[in-house]
Design a protein that fits this description.
CATH topology of the largest domain: Metallo-beta-lactamase, Chain A
GO molecular function, one term: hydrolase activity
Keywords: Hydrolase
Bound molecules: zinc ion
CATH superfamily of the largest domain: Ribonuclease Z/Hydroxyacylglutathione hydrolase-like
Radius of gyration: 19 Å
Number of helices: 7
Organism: Pleomorphomonas diazotrophica
InterPro entries: LACTB2_WH (IPR041516), Metallo-B-lactamas (IPR001279), RibonucZ/Hydroxyglut_hydro (IPR036866), Sec-metab_biosynth-thioest (IPR050662), WH-like_DNA-bd_sf (IPR036388)
Order of helices and strands: EEEEHEHHEEEEEEHEHEHHEE
Distance between the termini: 32 Å
Protein name: MBL fold metallo-hydrolase
Strand order of the largest sheet: 1-2-3-4-5-6-7
Number of domains: 2
Number of strands: 15
Length: about 280
């Protein structure tokens, strides 16, 4: 899927839609240019509930969650500490007594204060089965995906999304990590991905391969833009992202900067002040 082939996905806001046995999805009403239709919050279990990514710290969203859940919330599991995913964790925990578990906190986002941090391979028991954390840095340094045992389902957070490529923002995000984390998911084998934004991705392996090709093509385009001589990130964005929606220009510049860091790490590009050149 390319950036301009956005699939149909229209959630029913305020409703927890069943998407698999023991798994429901409630999409927050925070849609926008970087969040698509809004953040997907997943509810695991029917008698005692584990929430994966509670969503933004917004009173009406938390009310939606509490109205839809239908059973006590026991734990709140977080993929990464961006505010649209982890923002409501503390508020929801205070209202329900649920434990906040998952990605490590980072100084840049002090609102996120987990009770328990998971390392790669740690498993959380939930009603539908064990939820295994998979360290997938790249989008953020602390990003975790979660593999639900014996279900064929993998909660992919913002590492692999259902509508667009992930934004990799340096220095927290690193392109080298992001690419290695794509390989990491591929090594787990066939799964249906349930992402933080957009619809489910039935063939996760195909999507991972597509995302890798997309990044490789973008890198090749950046190198072509650099072939004529020194360039700034802004010059490269103008050359590579033709017809870009202006609201996404800042995100594009960050993505090019992330690619440039990775090229520099591999000795293919040199950065002096704000100018990049081929080596
Ligand atoms: Zn994010």
């Amino acid at each position: 899927m390319s950036d301009d082939e956005i699939p149909e996905f229209m959630p029913t806001y305020g409703v927890a839609e069943k998407i698999a046995e023991g798994v429901r999805r409630l999409t927050a009403r925070n849609g926008g240019p970087l969040t698509f239709r809004g953040t997907n919050c997943y509810l695991l279990g029917e008698h005692e509930v584990t929430v994966i990514d509670p969503g933004p710290d917004d009173e009406s969203h938390v009310s939606d969650l509490l109205a839809a859940v239908g059973a006590p919330i026991r734990r709140i599991v977080v993929t990464h500490d961006h505010a649209d995913h982890a923002g409501a964790a503390r508020r929801l925990s205070e209202l329900t007594g649920a434990e906040v578990i998952g990605a490590a906190p980072s100084p840049a986002r002090p609102f996120y204060t987990p009770d328990r941090v998971l390392a790669d391979g740690d498993t959380v028991a939930t009603e539908p089965g064990g939820l295994r954390a998979i360290a997938t840095p790249g989008h953020t340094a602390n990003h975790l995906c979660y593999d639900l045992a014996d279900s064929g389902l993998l909660f992919s957070g913002d590492h692999v999304m259902g509508w667009s490529t992930s934004v990799v923002v340096p220095p927290d995000g690193r392109m080298a990590d992001y690419m290695a984390s794509l390989d990491r998911l591929a090594a787990i084998g066939p799964r249906t991905y349930l992402p933080g934004h957009g619809d489910e991705v039935i063939d996760g392996l195909a999507r991972v391969a597509e995302l890798k090709r997309h990044r490789e093509a973008r890198e090749a385009a950046i190198l072509r833009a650099l072939d004529g001589g020194d360039r700034t990130v802004e010059d490269i964005v103008a050359a590579v992202y033709i017809g870009l929606d202006p609201s996404l220009a800042a995100a594009a510049a960050l993505s090019v900067a992330a690619h440039a860091d990775w090229l520099e790490e591999r000795g293919l590009v040199r950065k002096v002040a704000d100018r990049l050149s081929r080596l």
